[in-house]
Amino acid sequence: MSATIIVFFTEIILARVSRWNYPSLCLVSKRFHSLLSSMQFYKTRSQIGAKETCAYVCLNFRSSPCPSWFSLFTKPNQTLTEHRGEIRFPKDPSGNSVVPTPFSSSHSHHTTCQSNFSIGSEIYISGGPWEEPSSSVQIFDCRSHTWRNGPNMTVAREDACARFRNEKIYVMGGCDIDEYSASWIEVFDMTSQSWTAFPGPGADEAELRNLLHGGYDYNIVNVSQGKLYVNIDEKEYTYELKDGTWKVVRQQSSSLLKSERCNFYMK
C-alpha cells in the first residue's frame, strides 16, 4: 500500500475523531500535528459531515502585531448550558481545551477583532487593522477552515465597526469623516451581494463630528426598524438610514464604551 493511500485513510479516520482530542493526538508525532493543523484536514471533516459545537476566540496581544485565533472545545461528557438565551460553557476550568486555529499566512495580517462578526458557520472580516486600511471583505469557513473573498467595500477602512442584522452587514467608520463623509457608513445586502453607502454626520452636526475627530470610541450596538444605535463618547445616538439624521437618545456611563479587544464566536 502506497504512502499516499495510508495518509488518505489516516486522514479519514482522524477526521471522525472529536476535535477535543486533537491536542493529545498532536503529541503522537510531528506528522500527526502537521496533519491535524492543515487546511486540507478541515476540508475533509466538512466533506464527511463531521460537526461539533466549538467556540472561536480572537485575542489581541501587545507582543504580536496580528490577533491570535483559538478554538475552544468542551469535553465529550460535558454539555453546554443555556442561560437567558446565551450559551455557556461549564464552570469547571478542566472541562475545556484551547487549541490554536490554523490561519493561512496570506490572511492573518488582515484580521482585526473590532471588525469581525459571525454569520452562521462563517466569520467575516471587513477592512484592515489599525493603520492598514483596506476595502476587502474576507470570509472564514469554520467547517473547512478555508478562506474566500467577499465583495469589496466602496471605501478602504481600518479597524471599523461592524454588525450583522436581518441579512445585512452594517459597517461604520474606519476612515476620515471629512474625506469620506458621503460614504462613512456602508450596508451590505446578503441577497443582492452589493454594498450601499450612507453619509456620516453632516456639517450641521458639529458636536458629533468633533467627537469623531477627537478619537472617541464609537460602536454600533444595535440595528432596529431602519435605525442604527451607536455609542459615541458618553451618549447613545440613533441614525436613520432613510433620511440620514442623527439623534441623541440616551446618556450613559463611559465605562460601557471601552473598546473590546476580544471576540467570541460560537459555532
From TrEMBL:
Sequence ranges assigned to domain FKB95-like N-terminal Kelch in this UniProt record: 69-259
Gene3D superfamilies linked to this entry: Kelch-type beta propeller (2.120.10.80)
Protein name, UniProt field: F-box domain-containing protein
Matches recorded under Pfam families: F-box, Kelch_FKB95
UniProt domain F-box: residue ranges: 12-43
PANTHER family membership: F-BOX DOMAIN-CONTAINING PROTEIN, F-BOX/KELCH-REPEAT PROTEIN SKIP4
